[in-house]
């Protein structure tokens, strides 16, 4: 009699073996749950530190904007390999030299505080840096600017 749809039954002779195989899915489910929890924990940190920065082009714009009624301050912080240069309206306000191998960020903070007290309505600053300056110094200057309520940060390249 031909068998129905049941599993093969081993016969006493030699020949065919049973094809019963069970895949244990528990380790795969454990691995998947660990990976999902890891991805959920690390995805939160992508939005923690964020600074809104505008990039100012080095080339003159074709669209001519009408000049404002008030004269712009044009506050600029230049990060050089030798230190900082703070300037406003095209004139140098303060040259801050490095102390040994470290940048003098406390003197820069005092200079920014002085400019902010003289011009409380200004919130714009342009941060530029030379090529060999570490990226951390750019971030430090932007943090100092934000600390003194200079939140209109623009990043520009150094004109040669």
Characterization of the model:
By secondary structure, the protein is α/β, with parallel strands linked by helices. It has a domain at 71-157: Nucleotidyltransferase, domain 5 (2-Layer Sandwich). Helices cover 28% and strands 19% of the residues. The chain has helices at 26-43, 105-118, 135-147; strands at 54-55, 76-79, 83-88, 91-97, 124-129, 152-157. It has a six-stranded mixed sheet, with helices on one face. The protein is elongated, with a radius of gyration of 33 Å. The N and C termini lie far apart (95 Å).
Compose a concise summary of this entry.
This protein has a domain at 71-157: Nucleotidyltransferase, domain 5, CATH 3.30.420. 28% of the residues lie in helices and 19% in strands. The protein is built from three helices and six strands.
The name CATH uses for the topology of the domain at 71-157 is Nucleotidyltransferase, domain 5
Question: What Rg do the Cα atoms give?
Answer: 33 Å
Major β-sheet annotation: 6 strands, mixed
CATH superfamily of the domain at 71-157: ATPase, nucleotide binding domain
Round the mean pLDDT to the nearest integer and report it: 80
Main sheet: which strands, in order across? 1-6-5-2-3-4
**CATH architectural arrangement of the domain at 71-157:** 2-Layer Sandwich
Helix- and strand-based class?
alpha/beta
**What's the overall geometry?**
elongated
Helix content: 25-40%
First-to-last CA distance: 95 Å
Strand share of the residues? Answer: 15-25%
Please give the oligomerization state of what you see.
single chain
Task: Show the helix and strand layout.
Blueprint lengths: L25 H18 L10 E2 L20 E4 L3 E6 L2 E7 L7 H14 L5 E6 L5 H13 L4 E6 L3
Parallel strand pairs: 1-6, 2-5, 5-6
Antiparallel strand pairs: 2-3, 3-4
Helix pairs in contact: 2-3
């Amino acid at each position: 009699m031909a068998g129905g749809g049941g599993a093969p039954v081993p016969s006493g002779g030699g020949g065919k073996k049973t094809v019963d195989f069970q895949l244990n899915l528990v380790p795969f489910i454990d691995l998947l749950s660990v990976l999902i929890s890891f991805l959920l924990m690390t995805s939160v940190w992508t939005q923690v530190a964020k600074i809104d920065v505008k990039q100012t082009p080095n080339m003159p714009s074709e669209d001519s904007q009408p000049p404002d009624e008030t004269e712009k301050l044009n506050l600029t912080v230049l990060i050089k390999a030798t230190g900082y240069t703070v300037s406003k309206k095209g004139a140098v306000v303060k040259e801050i030299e490095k102390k040994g191998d470290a940048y003098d960020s406390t003197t820069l903070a005092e200079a920014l505080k002085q400019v902010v007290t003289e011009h409380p309505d200004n919130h714009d600053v342009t941060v530029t840096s030379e090529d060999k300056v570490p990226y951390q110094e750019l971030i430090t200057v932007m943090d100092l600017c934000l600390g003194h309520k200079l939140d209109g940060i623009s990043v520009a390249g150094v004109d040669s």
